[in-house]
Amino acid sequence: MVDIRPFKAIRYTEKAGKLKNLITQPYDKIDQDMQREYYEKSPYNYCRLILPMEENRYAAVHQRIYEWLSEHVLAKDDTPSVFVCCQEFKLNGKNCTRKGLIAALRLHAYGEGIVFPHETTYAAPKADRLNMLRTIQKDLEPVFLIYSDPENVTENLFAEIAKTTPTIDVEDQFRIRNKVWRITDPKKIAILQKALESKTMVITDGHHRYESALAYRDEQRNQEEWTKDSAFNFHMSYMVPVQDEGLVILPAHRLLRKFELNSEALEALKTYFSISELTPKFDALENFLATHKNEHAFCVYNGTKAYSLLLKDEEKIIQLANHNSNSREVRLLDVVILRDVIFKTMMKTGELKIDEDILYERSARVAMEKVDCGEAKLAFLVNPISPEVIWRIAQKLERLPEKSTDFYPKPVSGLVMMDISRGEKL
């Protein structure tokens, strides 16, 4: 059963300065240039907590949090609450709004059939986040999950709450407007708890954080007296219904740095794909993908020429897709076809190393520009996977290939923090 709880959030006070100078992208989306820019914005910028520059970073974050609390730069709410969060943004000229809920979500191991992953995780990032949890005993950033709400129970409540004045209203560096409403009304919280208790959750972003939180929970259970209400049994989470119109996944286009589409590979591809030459312009490639979004469609661009690839017959390539899965749906994902059929089988690329052999880019226009400037030899453009497909595949205990999804926009960091210290109850 899904168990969400209100929590006494730790938030910035007015003493910290303007919130736009404090919020950041998630820690794993911050590069060195962004890190420097965040540090310059404010001595209290949230980057100093989630991705500090200091060598002894865990100790530095621990010291900062308690200094900022004592200085009243940060303050802990007196009353437990949940938060409705809306992100308003433009995409391809269209106004979009994604609505979700921030609350404490009880942790469940994947095998319990309540929370499901959709990506593979790696040891180093998990060790980093676990060390941070051990040191500071705070959830600094939410895990981002999706659930199904075909009855629109939560969506309707979000829409009702969004008609009121938000507690927080701030635009981030990418001109995404973030609105947050603090909900303390027990009746509204009870409606949300009841609506979600029978759901299943799929992690979209934050797999490493979630798995680190599970490890931390188990450590704490072995070290101290605890109850089911102990805060370390939960993780601060941002949950969005899969039916939300603003739930957007961007495509993950592939760029090959060393390989070219020679005549031999092109002939091999004709066995499985209908191939046509396209005008080598962004609009032409974008239009082809848009008009074939329900088919297995690809575009390839080499700087002077462009081709469309349309799969002829699923049955002919199903065995060539060597992804570690028995699921037909997973084997027929465009990113699997691209990797296993087009790259490995037709183009003979072998295993491709990130940055050295292959690059990933969310923007088709930027992908083509990288070919034009010589950063890559080929750009392969794909359509994005739908949220419904992610949600469905994950619940079959399947994990997608690397860089399959790019949920946009990312939840900003620095709006709320959750205390999971020893003795903290929810």
Describe this structure in words.
The protein is an alpha+beta fold and 426 residues long. It folds into 2 domains: 4-248 and 408-419, no CATH class; 251-383, Conserved hypothetical protein from pyrococcus furiosus pfu- 392566-001, domain 2 (2-Layer Sandwich). It has 14 helices and 21 strands. The strands form 5 sheets. Strands 1, 4, 5, 6, 8, 9, 10, 11 and 12 form a 9-stranded mixed β-sheet that branches. Strand 4 (82-91) and strand 5 form a beta hairpin. The protein is globular.
Describe what is shown at a glance.
The chain has helices spanning 32-41, 47-50, 57-70, 123-136, 153-161, 186-196, 207-223, 263-269, 282-291, 314-317, 328-331, 334-346, 364-372, 387-394, and strands at residues 4-5, 10-12, 74-76, 82-91, 94-106, 115-116, 138-139, 143-147, 168-171, 177-183, 201-205, 234-241, 248-249, 253-256, 273-278, 297-301, 306-311, 358-361, 378-382, 407-408, 418-419. By secondary structure, the chain is an alpha+beta fold. α3 (57-70) packs parallel to α4 and α4 (123-136) crosses α7.
